[in-house]
């Protein structure tokens, strides 16, 4: 993937991250450190720099008497970016903050902060030559007992339709067109639900051969 850094066709992935301090999932840190990173700082150093920038922004706002409160904490819909040349499938990771409980999935709307955060990610990707983006189709990385088939269908339909709308809207933003959107599903999804969601992709996006990925 390192050679792809010098092209105008970069790839990115959206990974859900808990709210609070700037942190990456342990599995991502482990994978990023399995080989040498020659082009960018190691992921821990990138995260440390983001934390420093966040503290500086907070302190500057406080010193300037800003009327709006700023926080050093990340909230749902916020995201931060790490860059990589040594991962096999992506150059950029968008760490999207989500506070949804893993064992108690709720209902969300198109105005939910995480959905709006996804829109901002697509906008950022379009402006920085990222033409292929992978997103979690259910805004979850693992299935739980509470994620029933009807709930999963409703959630997928919302994410698919919002993503399609954002991609259409991106034509007015300028920058690179996102011509490949990959949909990531939990690895423990049932075959029945997988088939149902694959059919939904064809209907929503009007494509003949949709591609799903499973998060492991």
TrEMBL record:
Q: Which domain of life is it from?
A: Eukaryota
InterPro entries in alphabetical order: Fy-3
Q: Which GO terms describe its cellular component?
A: cytoplasm
Question: Which PANTHER family does this entry report, sorted A to Z?
Answer: PROTEIN C12ORF4 (PTHR16525)
Protein name (database record): Putative conserved secreted protein
Q: Which organism is it from?
A: Lutzomyia longipalpis (Sand fly)
């Amino acid at each position: 993937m390192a050679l792809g850094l010098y092209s105008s066709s970069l790839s990115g992935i959206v990974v859900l991250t808990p709210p609070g301090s700037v942190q990456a999932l342990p599995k991502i840190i482990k994978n990023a450190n399995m080989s040498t990173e020659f082009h960018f700082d190691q992921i821990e150093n990138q995260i440390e720099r983001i934390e420093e920038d966040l503290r500086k922004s907070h302190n500057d706002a406080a010193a300037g008497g800003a009327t709006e409160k700023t926080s050093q904490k990340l909230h749902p819909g916020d995201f931060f970016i790490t860059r990589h040349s040594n991962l096999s499938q992506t150059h950029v990771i968008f760490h999207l903050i989500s506070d949804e409980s893993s064992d108690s999935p709720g209902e969300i709307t198109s105005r939910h902060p995480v959905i709006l955060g996804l829109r901002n990610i697509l906008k950022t990707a379009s402006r920085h030559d990222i033409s292929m983006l992978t997103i979690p189709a259910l805004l979850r990385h693992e299935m739980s007992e509470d994620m029933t088939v009807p709930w999963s269908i409703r959630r997928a339909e919302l994410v698919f339709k919002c993503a399609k709308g954002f991609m259409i809207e991106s034509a007015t933003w300028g920058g690179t067109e996102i011509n490949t959107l990959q949909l990531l599903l939990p690895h423990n999804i049932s075959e029945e639900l997988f088939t149902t969601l694959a059919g939904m992709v064809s209907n929503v996006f009007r494509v003949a051969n949709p591609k799903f990925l499973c998060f492991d």
